[in-house]
Amino acid sequence: MLESVPAPLLYIVFALYGLATGSLAGALSYRLPRRQPVIFDRSRCTSCGATLGARDLIPVLSWLLAKGRCRHCKAPVSSRYLWIELAVTALFLAALALAPNLWAAVCLAFLGAGLVVLIVADLEARILPDPIQAGLALLALGWQASTQAEWQDMILGGGLGLGVGLLLRLSYLALKKRHGLGMGDVKFLGVAGLWLGLAALPSFLLLAGLLGVAFGLVWRLATGNKVFPFGPALAAALFLTLAVLPVIR
Ligand SMILES: [Zn+2]
Prior knowledge:
Layout: H1 7-31, H2 61-65, H3 80-98, H4 102-125, H5 130-147, H6 151-176, H7 183-223, H8 231-248
């Protein structure tokens, strides 16, 4: 049924869902690390506390029309929401363009949104929230069904990812006498293994390592700090390995 929808219309639908999901991602990435309620709680201005209505919450447009300020108190509203909405929308469109079929595109799109939440939470609060990781682990089942991957391969990939993560964490601790890889990173390697299966896991680990080194250098230049969050490199490597590598191969 969905397969009969014309392509240009699909791109419009994916863009609209991307904007709405991006808006949710902006809220989740703020609230989860701060342990604030994520549902049944209206969005408020963080400066004056005014409850935000529908016209404040239109993705991208509200922020642009109000010139990045609260309509009530005129305090600047962080552009993080704008960038998160645009990033998630771009990933929704990339998923539609790159996935092998429509249902795989839906899974890949929501994976992209979850990864953006993880990246923002890791950059801002050094945490990869468990609820998002659990959601992505469940979504791997949808990906497995839509790509007809073998479920045994999925389980083995998840187990090996987790094992590699624990091994890296313990080796780092033994060599450097301090934690290098957080438990959030270890869990993420397990989630990534579920999505990738055994065969794609090595290219993912290689790519994550390369991106991690590059990101670590940029981080050190920008902040002067040698210790950098590894989540962004892991998340980017997962999306690239699933969506881009099969296409360019
Ligand atoms: Zn305000």
